[in-house]
Write a structure and sequence with these properties.
A hairpin with a 4-residue loop joins β1 and β2. The chain has 304 residues and is α+β, with helices and mostly antiparallel strands. The two termini are 32 Å apart. It is built from five helices and 17 strands. The longest helix has 17 residues. It is globular.
Length: 304
């Protein structure tokens, strides 16, 4: 029965019908919390304790990042990602411009800008692998039916992705996570949705789900293990495509269940929109002034 419920949830993740004047920009990502760093990314295998790379060191990328897809009416234009307090450590493709917006050191903030010269649905000539992205991850990230983007250097890809290290200015910049001297903790007053995973010997199991969810208290370690994309669909509230959320879960599933994370308990929860906007912002400016609508969905992952 649970499998049927979440199959229906996936089918019911409906985006409003596209009109012929609008470009839809969808982005998913994950923020992982450790005692030393906060890394905003999509790749679970990035070392969260690695040093940030300065822009002149980007010849050897070391990480992968939030995924941005484009739908709707074809367009040409300029896409900008702004990191408000932190630094990019990876991008694909490499941006046309990388501009520091820091008023003064040691504060860091950057804009990365990509010029998009064409959008099509033709997936011919996409590369099979990048130096920083495996063919397996590319297959997962290219599943959504998004536009193929052509960039100024002639490269083509179905998404833009980036990763950055974030530098908080206060302990609650990443609510509901609080940054304290002894590490990151979930706000004790948080009552929103979350999945709890625990280590059980050499395996990892779902312990429970919390929040305003019809399955609260029903999920157990002995329950079905194929319902997680449906949970993400419920959390996203119809703002994302099902294929995007399946890709999101497929990216992180093996990392969650192999238990390589520190501690014995792993919390996975959606981040509020206001938290996301404090970290980064995205803007698409089309050359013909099309209407642009944005959907951004992020998970926080905290272990202890």
């Amino acid at each position: 029965m649970l499998e049927l419920i979440f199959a229906a949830a996936l089918m019911d993740t409906v985006i409003a019908p596209s009109d012929f004047e609008t470009v839809y920009v969808h982005e998913w990502g994950v923020v992982t919390f450790t005692e030393e760093n906060v890394v905003f990314g999509a790749n679970p295998f990035t070392d969260p304790d690695s040093d940030a790379l300065l822009p002149y060191q980007w010849e050897e990328p070391v990480a992968r990042a939030p995924i941005v897809y484009f739908y709707g009416v074809p367009f040409t234009g300029t896409f900008t990602v702004s990191v408000h307090s932190g630094n990019f450590i990876e991008t694909v493709p490499f941006p046309d411009n990388l501009v520091s917006t820091s008023p003064m050191p040691p504060q860091q903030s950057y804009n990365a800008v990509w010029e998009i010269s064409e959008t099509t649905l033709n997936e011919e000539y996409l590369v099979g692998e990048y130096s920083s992205v495996s063919s397996d991850l590319l297959k997962i990230w290219r599943k959504p039916p998004s536009f193929v983007l052509t960039f100024n250097d002639g490269s083509r890809e179905k998404f833009v992705y980036y990763e950055c290290v974030l530098v908080p200015s206060s302990e609650d910049d990443f609510y509901p996570v609080l940054l304290q001297e002894n590490g990151s903790v979930l706000d004790p007053d948080y009552r929103g949705p979350a999945m709890w995973f625990v280590k059980d010997g050499e395996t990892v199991v779902m312990d429970r789900i919390m929040g305003n969810d019809p399955l609260q208290g029903i999920i157990t370690p002995d329950g079905p293990q194929n319902i997680y994309p449906g949970i993400l669909c419920d959390w996203a509230g119809g703002t994302m495509k099902s294929e995007e959320l399946v890709s999101m879960w497929d990216t992180w599933e093996s990392w969650i269940f192999d238990g390589s994370w520190s501690g014995d308990t792993l919390l996975v929860f959606p981040l509020p929109e206001r938290t996301i906007e404090r970290m980064t912002s995205i803007v698409l400016q089309t050359h013909d002034y099309r209407n642009v609508e944005y959907s951004r969905f992020y998970l926080g992952i905290l272990s202890y």
